[in-house]
């Protein structure tokens, strides 16, 4: 019993100590998804979906939940965001080649179609990010149409 108490106190001290460490937040001052939105011109419905369900992990601006103030949750979220952005960053769209844009749009609709994105851990908390069949269809259609524009080299500049 004495040992258990020591262990618990030890854990509590570690928990408190780790609260002093904060991963850097993914927040930039610019509204830097504008270039992506202009170029791929999603219909309003798709814009809202991308904003509500994808940008937190795939852009330079995350809207953080309150529990991001608690370590180790903060580290877990930071990790997801870093990994998500390294795969696809809508804030960096203007620096992708046409070929990469085309490929990312292909991955995008595949992920959404098979319901791998948004991540389940995310939709547990963010109800609004759960996509209906109709919403999935709208995203897939937009991504496919936009791909064909890249393939034809036909996007408005
Ligand atoms: C909670 C964070 C989070 C959210 C929200 C999220 N993603 Fe992701 N996304 C990730 C992570 C992490 C990866 C890399 C690991 C993986 O593929 O599971 C990823 C990978 C991807 C990839 C690359 C997959 C591949 O083929 O390698 C695409 C495309 C993608 N996400 C699209 C989306 C779209 C579209 C949405 C919104 C409908 C979305 N994501 C929402 C975290 C997220």
Automatic annotation (TrEMBL):
Which residue intervals define the domain Haem-binding in the entry?
A: 12-147
Q: Could you tell me what this protein is called?
A: Heme-binding domain-containing protein
């Amino acid at each position: 019993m004495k040992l258990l108490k020591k262990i618990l106190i030890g854990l509590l001290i570690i928990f408190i100590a780790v609260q002093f460490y904060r991963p850097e937040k993914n927040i930039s001052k610019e509204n830097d998804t504008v270039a992506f939105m202009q170029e791929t011109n999603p219909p309003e419905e798709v814009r809202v979906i991308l904003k509500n369900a994808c940008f937190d992990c795939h852009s330079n601006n995350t809207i953080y939940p309150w529990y991001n103030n608690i370590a180790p949750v903060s580290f877990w979220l930071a990790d997801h965001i870093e990994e998500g952005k390294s795969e696809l960053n809508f804030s960096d769209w203007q620096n992708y080649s046409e070929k990469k844009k085309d490929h990312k749009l292909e991955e995008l609709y595949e992920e959404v179609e098979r319901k791998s994105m948004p991540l389940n851990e995310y939709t547990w908390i963010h109800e609004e990010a759960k996509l209906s069949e109709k919403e999935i269809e709208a995203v897939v259609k937009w991504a496919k149409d936009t791909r064909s524009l890249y393939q034809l080299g036909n996007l408005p500049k």
